[in-house]
Design a protein that fits this description.
Number of strands: 9
Low-confidence stretches: none
Largest sheet: 5 strands, mixed
Order of helices and strands: HHHHEEEEEEEEEH
Structural class: alpha+beta
Helix content: 10-25%
Number of domains: 1
Oligomer: single chain
Strand content: 5-15%
Mean pLDDT: 91
Shape: globular
């Protein structure tokens, strides 16, 4: 072994210790780098949401500033319950779990698929990280949609609480407070929570969680905003993103005091008139 200039040399024990130290440092660094590296599914999710946000705005531009229909209930997408998407999602074979026509084919479903002429592909309505399926006959098929729209945004929409003190947005020019960049329009909803195309928040009741956002991206959900940008919001409180148990739904319409994730959802869903 070559000696150092001052006559000293590394011993075998020192070399082994140094290698072990470097290996330990690498094992700590690699997961951190992995968390900061863009995830391909997250990037694809954000691209989908941006397309939907652009389509949402183009629809308003083509319809005198009126926002696309955003009703709730099992009948949405059928006359007279026009809606931006049609169908009710659950885990049964009798629902529209796999019906992409009610997302993009407005000609075949004239009371649904209002954004279809602007997005064309049904794939943008589903986060690539959503692996939920439904059994139809002998097959397990992927469900068609993971996205829902903010209940405070859209024509024929409604607040959760009667006599709500918060703003309902039915025209594009009404979105001034909060600014379009701060108002979320569409999000990815949790697979056991999603049903119609409307996601409810209830800012009239502090810490109230009606529906559950998804947690597909490192405990985060994708959001599209009124200015057409999209981002992933990561949840800090485990009550916002409970452990997924197949076949078991989380409790809906609950109050989780101190859950700052809920506060964020409410604050960015609407504002006081």
């Amino acid at each position: 072994m070559r000696k150092l200039p001052d006559g000293r040399a590394f011993t075998l024990i020192e070399l082994v210790s140094l290698i072990a130290l470097l290996a330990f440092a690498a094992s700590c660094l690699v997961p951190a780098l992995a968390r900061t590296r863009p995830n391909s599914r997250a990037v694809s999710c954000l691209n989908n949401l941006k397309q939907l946000s652009n389509a949402w705005r183009l629809y308003a531009d083509d319809n005198g500033g009126r926002l696309v229909w955003n009703r709730d209930g099992a009948a949405v997408g059928n006359v007279p319950s026009q809606n931006w998407v049609g169908g009710w999602l659950d885990f049964t074979s009798v629902s529209d779990n796999t019906n992409t026509g009610k997302l993009v084919d407005h000609a075949a479903y004239p009371a649904a698929a209002y954004l279809g002429p602007y997005v064309k592909s049904a794939g943008v309505f589903k986060c690539p990280a959503d692996s939920s399926t439904v059994r139809i006959g002998s097959q397990r098929l992927p469900r068609a949609r993971s996205v829902s729209m903010n209940n405070f945004v859209g024509e024929a929409n409604r607040a959760w609480s009667l006599g709500s003190q918060f703003q309902l947005y039915r025209r594009i020019d009404a979105i001034g407070k909060p600014s379009p960049a701060a108002l979320w329009i569409i999000l990815d909803e949790r697979e056991e929570s999603i049903n119609d195309g409307c996601f409810f928040t209830d800012p009239d009741t502090a810490w109230s969680l009606i529906d559950y956002p998804a947690a597909y991206h490192d405990r985060g959900a994708g959001f599209a905003f009124g200015d057409a940008h999209a981002e992933i919001r990561h949840w800090a409180d485990p009550r916002t993103a409970p452990v997924l148990i197949p076949g078991q739904q989380p409790p809906f319409n609950v109050v989780f005091p101190g859950d700052l994730d809920i506060a964020w959802l409410q604050q960015h869903a609407t504002s006081r008139p």
